[in-house]
Each structure stands twice: as structure tokens, then as C-alpha cells.
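hi! just following up on the protien thing from before. the input was this:
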Amino acid sequence: MDPNTTRFYSSKNFRLFYKRSESSGLEISISKKFFKFAVERNKIKRRIREIFRKDSLHVKGVVIVFSVFKPFAGLSYKGARIEIKNAVSSLKESCNEY
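and the predicted 3d structure came back as:
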């Protein structure tokens, strides 16, 4: 498999896409279809950014695209943190195989 292909992790709460790139970063996508109010969307974005910052989940040379689904809003901070850490670590492992 080509090492430049996009990989993803999917669960009922969110989907992560992992793309190799010149720069590293985090892109968060939250649909108005699932979260009508900007306050809700911004709260979720802040929570995700904080988890990535505190746990140093950013990877050099990789852009992580984070797409959130409706059940994510029901997760506690601790539950979201555990699930995001597991998702990122499984993506890192799958990309290191190539």
C-alpha cells in the first residue's frame, strides 16, 4: 500500500482521517445537521483541541482531520479523551507499518 494514502479510524462518535503532508495540524469538522447551535459546535472544537494539546497527540508531517457525529456530545471529557487517544494511537500504528 502506498504510504501517502489517506487512512482513517471510525467509531460511532467520530471519524479521523490521517493524511501525510508538508505541515502538521488538526482540522475539525462539525456538521450543522447534528449540532444546530454554534455554541455547541465551538464547545466540542475546544474540547478536541484541548485533548490534542494536553496529550501531545499532534504528529509531525501529518494532518489529522476530525469529523464529529451526534453521539460525541454525550461523552464526558474523560471518555472523549480516552477514545481520541486510542484512535490516534491506532492510526499511528497503522501508518508506521508502511
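The radius of gyration is 13 Å.
The chain has a mean pLDDT of 86.
cheers
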